[in-house]
Structures are given as structure tokens and as C-alpha cells.
């Protein structure tokens, strides 16, 4: 089992049952440990959650905003982020899946 680097912006840690996904850590002047977004994921679910996280962050964060600051300012914090990424509360998969496919065909 790997030891998590919890200060990284994102982290994927192998476990005996699959993968743990950590997000929104920060090093530097204002260090912040990453939060566990989901645990014991299979490979396909891990990729799906990473895709959702990155697209949600890219679409909602101001330019040059670090993930840690973005999460600190996100209404509902990590619980809201989990509902968006894990439960697909906003239906992002249906919105972005056609765009992902279009990009993959290029």
C-alpha cells in the first residue's frame, strides 16, 4: 500500500480494495492536506470521478485559483463536492459525455 501525499492537489493512492482519491491539497506558503473524496474505487470509477472533478473545477474556478482555495470557497465544501462528483447531483455526465467523445475523435 502506498503512503498518501496529502499535500498534493490531487492524489491517487492504491489500497488493498482499489484506489483512494484525494483532492484539493496545497503545499507552499499555505499548506493544506488533501481531502479524501472517495475510497476503494475500481479503475473505471476512479477515472470517471477524476474526469468529473477536473471538469467541474475547470468550469467553476476562477483562473489561477488553486484547488484548495476553490474548495474552501465552494458553498457546501467537500460534502457538496462529493454530491457533485460521486452522486452526479448536477447531471454533469450527461452534459459532458458528448463533449468528451467529440474530443476523443479529434
From TrEMBL:
Entry annotated with the keyword Iron: yes
A Gene Ontology molecular function term of the record: oxidoreductase activity
Keyword terms, alphabetized: 4Fe-4S, Heme, Iron, Iron-sulfur, Metal-binding, Oxidoreductase
Keyword Iron-sulfur: yes
Family annotation (InterPro entries): NasD-like, NO2/SO3_Rdtase_4Fe4S_sf
Domain of life: Bacteria
Record Gene3D superfamilies: Sulfite Reductase Hemoprotein, domain 1
PANTHER family, alphabetized: NITRITE REDUCTASE (NADH) LARGE SUBUNIT
Name of the protein this chain belongs to: Nitrite reductase (NAD(P)H) large subunit
Amino acid at each position: 500500500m502506498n503512503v498518501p501525499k496529502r499535500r498534493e492537489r490531487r492524489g491517487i493512492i492504491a489500497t488493498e480494495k482499489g484506489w483512494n482519491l484525494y483532492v484539493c491539497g496545497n503545499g507552499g506558503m499555505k499548506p493544506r492536506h488533501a481531502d479524501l473524496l472517495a475510497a476503494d474505487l475500481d479503475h473505471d470509477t476512479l477515472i470517471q470521478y477524476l474526469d468529473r472533478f477536473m471538469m467541474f473545477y475547470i468550469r467553476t474556478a476562477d483562473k489561477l485559483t488553486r484547488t484548495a482555495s476553490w474548495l474552501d470557497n465552494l458553498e457546501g465544501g467537500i460534502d457538496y463536492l462529493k454530491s457533485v462528483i460521486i452522486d452526479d447531483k448536477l447531471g454533469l455526465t450527461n452534459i459532458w459525455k458528448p463533449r468528451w467523445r467529440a474530443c476523443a475523435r479529434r
